Amino acid sequence: MTTKNIFCAAALFSVALAASAQMPNASQQVDSLQQRRQLEQAAQMMVATNGVPELYAGESSDMGPQSVIQTKPRRTYLAAFADAQYFYTDNMFLANQNKQGADVLVSTVQVALAPTPYEVQGGLLAPRLGIQEQWFNYGLARSGQISVYNFPTHTFKNVSLDAFDFNAMTVFTDAQWSKENWTFTLGTDYRRLNNAQSSDGFYKEYVPRWAARRDFITSDKTMISIGYEGDYRLTDTQNVPPANGGNFNDRTDHSLVIAGSWRLCRCAFLQPSYRFQYTHFTAATRDDYLNSFGLALYFPINDHVTLRTYVSYDNLKTDGFYVQNSETLNAGGGVNLRVRF
Amino acid sequence: MKDKFLLLVALASLALPLHAAPLTESTFTEIVNEVNALSAAGAAAPAKVNDVLKAPQRVRTGPQSRAELIALDNTITRVGANTIFSYADSGRTLNLEQGSLLFHAPKGLGGGTIKSGGAAAAVLGTTVMTSSTPEGGLKVILLEGKGQVTLPNGKSVILTAGQEVFVLPGGTAFSPVFSINLDKLVGGSLLVKGFSHELSSMPLILVAIQDQNSKLKSGANSDTGQPPEFFLPPPAPGNGQNVLDPATTQTATHPPLTPRQFNALVNAGQGPPPGNVGPGGRTIVTLSGPRG
């Protein structure tokens, strides 16, 4: 091991002490990451297979492999998570033409029964059961009037963008099993979308989901992950077109996710990502193809707080009758708070 | 060597010694591959078993080489590959210029002191392994017993069996104290296992290993094993408009209806549609283009 690598190890260790990077937008993944980090924090500095860095090449041959042992951290059972992101989208309605730009605030609060992972079959099993509430608020900074058609009253009227505010309530349970560089997830969600002003529900879905991911550590600063995510959405949609049932949004999603993680310095991570998602609607004649590109920069402040800024571009192709092909550009930032107890 | 400064690693039994016999010479009891004894003038001669190394002679080992020396009081010094070390003229001092060594002083003999380049330190202990680099890097691992490592600035740490601390090359501060897996360490250590006979302190080391293994088995401790990745996992849909998947988002903020789409909804029933008709989801929808 070179002196450079030793200093990289020291830098890694400093990062581990000072900050704990978190994934702000994938809470279950963050939980897993943080839990694993708690278990292995003492070994954060390692960049070689022997654990503690060698002072010079060949040292471990004479002294022996140095694998760090750690007293297991106190088991925790609950995880609380709060996140706020504020961004600008140039295409609030996912339209093909006449795009409507808007600033959007998405606030998330989540509480889960999420015990410290258990060792199962040589890996770590992390089960969760929780509830999440999200608030979507549009046009906080600039809310022009737009014309809409109100189907119940069959009238046109002008409304501000905040007329589209809504809430999403999700009850979720899942289990994630990680071993070496593999991670498998099996879970299910129940989600309900409500009008913010009237609290009327307009969409419900029950979503069994599954995922598999392989991480490739390419250096002490970089990692590439490739994963597959799948789900089946049993839906109940209000105000559906004539001759359609409430389940006309039933669908199955299959995604290929490729992401990189590049540690720029002790408190900054760059994460480019790409997602291809194929969606087949099972109760309607519709197939969607989504290509999504993202670039995010994360700033872990400490074990509990992470800042981020991001840009993303989404290209959606669809043959659905009531929807459109669309291109969307988003840019914004966010902060999250995470506590385990 | 720049900024060479003294590293003192004092090794001693915690029990007060009855007397501290000088450790100025030892006899080679085992030699593996290339081991040379260097005179004070620097002349090198291959070392042989039963040769006596006396201060100020030095030992220099080559790659994949090692040697064991035992003093009359049964103090053991095992030297690893690419190592240069010597005994001091007086006291119980070893000068470790670079490389690695294992040192064991039976209780009651006053332990020993090791000098090397790097941050000054002092350790009290029984069986210890240490390595150092010419740039001042230092690592100390206690195999059994209890000891102390002290830097010249007064900072010190206490080590017990199975614990390790190091100073990075050019550094002046300790790393955190790590507990390491003694079983794995000893099993893969040439300084422990790479000789034809067992260390006299092996029973004490085995006790420490058993204690550590019992804690691992009970689940009180865990072996972290391979290094964890310190990276972010790939993103789920979550930033920007991807907080929800597109089809779900479209139920909340539906794409504008084209005249064709609007007509299909409004005129499908050949008149005003019932209140529960729409494109799916919210009851208010924007329109694109002229109304049909």
What is the string of helix and strand elements of chain A? HHHEEEEEEEEEEEEEEEE
Distance between the termini of chain A: 39 Å
Mean pLDDT of chain B: 80
Biggest sheet of chain A, in brief? Answer: 12 strands, antiparallel, barrel
Could you name the key traits of this structure?
heterodimer; A: 341 residues; mainly beta; Lipocalin; 12-stranded antiparallel β-barrel; 3 helices; elongated; B: 292 residues; alpha+beta; Jelly Rolls; 15-stranded mixed sheet; 5 helices; 33% strand; disordered N terminus
3D architecture notes:
The complex is a heterodimer of chains A (341) and B (292). Chain A has 341 residues and is mainly beta. Helices cover 10% and strands 57% of the residues of chain A. Chain A has helices at residues 3-18, 27-40, 59-63, and strands at 68-71, 78-89, 102-113, 118-120, 123-138, 145-150, 155-160, 166-179, 182-195, 201-217, 222-237, 251-265, 268-281, 286-300, 305-318, 326-340. Chain A has a twelve-stranded antiparallel barrel. In chain A, a hairpin with a 4-residue loop joins strand 13 (268-281) and strand 14. Mean pLDDT of chain A is 83; it is low at 1-50. In chain B, the strands form two sheets. Chain B has a 15-stranded mixed sheet that branches. Chain B has a two-stranded antiparallel sheet with strand order 14-15. In chain B, a hairpin with a 5-residue loop joins strand 12 (127-132) and strand 13 (138-144). The model of chain B is unreliable at 1-18 and 226-230 (pLDDT under 50). The interface between A and B is large, with 145 and 105 residues. Strand 1 of chain A pairs antiparallel with strand 18 of chain B.
